[in-house]
Amino acid sequence: MDTSASILVTGAAGHLGTSVVHELHQLGYQVLATLGSQKNTGIFDHLERVTSHVVDLLDPAGVASFIDTVRPKAPRAAVLLVGGFTAGGFAETSVDDLENMFRLNFLTAYNVVQPLLPIFDAQGGGQFILVGARPALLPDAGKDLVAYSLSKSLVFELASLINAYGQGKSIAASVIVPSIIDTPVNRKAMPDADPATWVTPEAVSKTIAFVLSEAGQMMHEPILKLYNQS
Ligand SMILES: NC(=O)c1ccc[n+]([C@@H]2O[C@H](COP(=O)([O-])OP(=O)(O)OC[C@H]3O[C@@H](n4cnc5c(N)ncnc54)[C@H](OP(=O)(O)O)[C@@H]3O)[C@@H](O)[C@H]2O)c1
User: Fold this and answer.
1) Whose CA is nearest to atom 21 of ligand 1?
2) What's the rounded Cα separation, in Å, for the pair 119 and 116?
């Protein structure tokens, strides 16, 4: 595994992001971690190969300028973890809900993909790892989570378009699909559920590390469903 290259991780201060940063750092990677706000500045100061950058991923110009600053670090992959959730079927889903989910789940990824693609082109390749969601693949579940499912369905489409663009250029996208991640937020929201049936952030992080590995790079357009027993 070439761990001398750097890996960009967005949403690094989130529940999944923190675990991913620790996993990649422990494997020896240089990690370029983006934070959504100043409040988490310093959380990775004890990790010598992690640099943290506060970047609003909804600001395309700001993201492009950030990507330009990390170009000399030759990022060879981007793990795009920013995203969020909202419940609601058709009756409860407003245009505002649709737009908010579109921005949080899709634009935060697109705004990184767009300026990184020319860098991957120039470097001769690169990987994107995106996070989808099961309701975007299962209409029976998605019909009660309309804004969330529609926004996450675009993540799968984005991966397909990247893979079409990247054919023959060693540029590829993978989608990780966790069911419910075992986070404090989910434990609080679902006090009667059994978290042992969920997926741990560590399991998702190890899967992401595998996708980044030499063996993982052999996979073709993977959509990796991490559902455990939920
Ligand atoms: N949790 C689950 O059960 C579950 C299930 C399936 C899929 N997923 C997906 O997995 C991914 C990670 O989930 P998570 O639970 O770890 O989420 P999380 O804890 O809410 O973390 C999301 C992170 O995104 C950052 N962020 C939000 N808006 C941003 C913006 N405009 N610019 C830059 N950063 C921004 C936040 O930073 P600040 O806090 O600093 O704003 C936060 O640290 C998401 O894509 C989610 O949809 C989660």
Assistant:
1) 14
2) 5
Distance 144 CA to ligand 1 centre (A): 21
Classify 127 as helix, strand or coil: strand
From atom 45 of ligand 1, which residue's Cα is the shortest distance away?
Answer: 83
| 3 state DSSP class of 44 | coil
Give the nearest ligand 1 atom to 199 CA.
3
Measured at the alpha carbon of residue 10, what is the angle toward residues 118 and 63, in degrees to the nearest 5?
Answer: 50
Q: HSE of 216 in the Cβ direction (CA atoms, 13 Å)?
A: 22
Q: Going from the N-terminus, what domains does the chain have, and what CATH number goes with each? A: 6-180+200-224 (3.40.50.720)
Query: Are the C-beta atoms of 205 and 226 separated by less than 8 Å?
Result: no
What percentage of the chain has pLDDT greater than the value 70?
98
Ligand 1 near 51 CB (within 6 A)? no
Q: What digits encode the pLDDT tens for the residues 106-161?
A: 999 999 999 999 999 999 999 999 999 999 999 999 999 999 999 999 999 999 99
Residue-level pLDDT at 4: 67
Q: What is the pTM of this model?
A: 0.98
Token pair in block for residue 124: 């001769």
60 CB-near residues (< 8 Å, 6+ apart): 111, 114
* Tens-digit pLDDT profile for residues 33-69: 999 999 999 999 999 999 999 999 999 999 999 999 9
